[in-house]
Amino acid sequence: MTALARHVTTVAESTELSGSSASFAADVIAGLTATPKRLSPKYFYDRAGSELFERITELPEYYPTRTETGILTERARDIAKLIPEGAALIEFGSGSSTKTRIVLHETKSLAAYVPVDISAEFLSQQAGTLRADFPKIKMLPVAADFSEPFELPGAVQQLPRAGFFPGSTIGNFEPHEACAFLRHAARVLGHGAVLIVGVDLVKDTGVLQRAYNDKQGVTAAFNLNLLKRINSELGAKIDLDSFEHHAFFNRERSRIEMHLASLKRQRLKLGGECIDFRAGETIHTENSYKYTVESFGALARGAGFVQTAVWTDARSYFSVHVLTLREEPAPTRPRPDLAAVG
Ligand SMILES: C[S@@+](CC[C@H](N)C(=O)[O-])C[C@H]1O[C@@H](n2cnc3c(N)ncnc32)[C@H](O)[C@@H]1O
C-alpha cells in the first residue's frame, strides 16, 4: 500500500471517502505497470459495481449468497445469543446489508449497527433504507477501506462490539493478509469480542467455475466495470471490447482467479504512463480463496482467535464461523522460585 493510498476515517458518521481518487489513480498505475499486471478487487465497488454485485448474488450459478443466507437464517437465534446486550454490530464490507437484516431482526437488544464499506454512495443509500426499517437501532455507516486503520463512530466507542464479515469477502485476501485482517478486526472489536465470518469452501471445480462464469455475463460485466471506472474516473480511453473476462479455479492455490485478458496487442495511456499489453496478457483482478473448515480454523488460530462454532449447509458448500478472541497471554513475570536463583 502506497503512502498516497492510506487514509484514516475519523469522522463520527462518514459516507464519503477522503482522498479516494488520488489513491485509486496511484494504485491503478502501480498495478498496471507491475509484472504480472494486477488490480485490487476493492476497486470493483463504485456504485455501478455494487449494483452489479447485487445482481450476481441472485444468479442461479452463484450459490454462495443463497447458501450463506440459508445458514444464517437457520442459526439466527444462536447468533443473537452471541451478541452482548446493548452492543454495536460492526460489519466489514456491508454491501446491501441483506444478510445482516436476518441478524438485526433477531437481535432485539442491539444498540447500533456500523456498516463499513468502500462503496460510499451505495453505503449511504443502504443506510437510509435500514434507518426506516429498524428505527430503534442507531445506523452509523462508515465509508472506509476496512483493511486500513479507521475510527469507529464516537457513539459506539464505549459499547460492547460484535463483528460480522459475511460474503466470503475474506477469501479476497491472500491467506497471510486474511490473518493480518483478522488481527486488525480484533483491535477494532476490542477485548473478548466475537466475530462471525462467512467462508466459501473447496468443492467440485465445475460448481466453482460456473459460479464465476454465469451464462448471463453479469460477472463478466462486473469485472469489466473496473476498466469502465478507470475510463470515467481517470480519463483513460480503454476499449472495453478489447478485453475479456476470464475466471478459473487454480487448484494448487485453492482459489478462483479472475482476470481481464487483452484480446490484442495494445498500448494504454494513463497519467503520463504508457502501458503495453501483449495479446492474451491479463490483469489479475480478483482471487477468491476457498478453504476447508480446518484450514480456515488454523488461519483464525494464527490470528489469535478460537473457532467456537462452525455451521455449514447440507452439501458443505459454505461455512459460517464464530470466532472469539483467545485470552491475552499473561504478561511474563519471573517465577518467584526462579527469581530467587542466582
Ligand atoms: C463480496 S461483497 C459482500 C457484500 C455483503 N457483505 C454480502 O455478504 O453479500 C464485498 C463487499 O465489501 C466491500 N469491500 C470490498 N473491499 C473493501 C475494502 N477494502 N474496504 C471496505 N469495503 C470493501 C464491497 O464494496 C462490497 O460491498
Write the layout of secondary structure elements.
Layout: H1 20-32, E1 37-38, H2 47-57, H3 63-74, H4 76-82, E2 88-92, H5 100-106, E3 112-117, H6 120-133, E4 138-139, E5 142-143, E6 161-165, H7 175-189, E7 194-200, H8 205-211, H9 218-234, E8 243-250, E9 255-262, E10 266-270, E11 273-277, E12 282-289, H10 293-302, E13 305-312, E14 318-325, H11 336-339
Parallel strand pairs: 1-12, 2-3, 2-6, 3-4, 3-5, 6-7
Antiparallel strand pairs: 7-14, 8-9, 9-12, 10-11, 13-14
Helix pairs in contact: 2-9
Q: Can you describe this structure?
A:
- The protein is α/β, with parallel strands linked by helices and 342 residues long.
- It has a single domain, classed as 3-Layer(aba) Sandwich (Rossmann fold).
- The protein has eleven helices and 14 strands.
- Strands 2, 3, 4, 5, 6, 7, 13 and 14 form an eight-stranded mixed sheet that branches. Strands 1-12-9-8 form a four-stranded mixed sheet.
- The longest helix is centred in the middle third of the chain and has 17 residues, at 218-234.
- The relative contact order is 0.15.
Globular, elongated, flat, extended or rod-shaped: what is the shape?
A: globular
Largest sheet: 8 strands, mixed
Figure out the total of helices: 11
What is the CATH domain class? Alpha Beta
Estimate percent helicity: 25-40%
CATH superfamily, please? Vaccinia Virus protein VP39
What fraction strand? Answer: 15-25%
Name the ligand types. Answer: S-adenosylmethionine
Structural class: alpha/beta
What is the gyration radius calculated from CA atoms?
21 Å
Please tell me the CATH architecture by its name: 3-Layer(aba) Sandwich
Distance between the termini: 49 Å
Q: What is the H/E order?
A: HEHHHEHEHEEEHEHHEEEEEHEEH
Tally of extended strands?
14
pLDDT < 50 stretches: 1-12, 332-342
CATH fold type = Rossmann fold
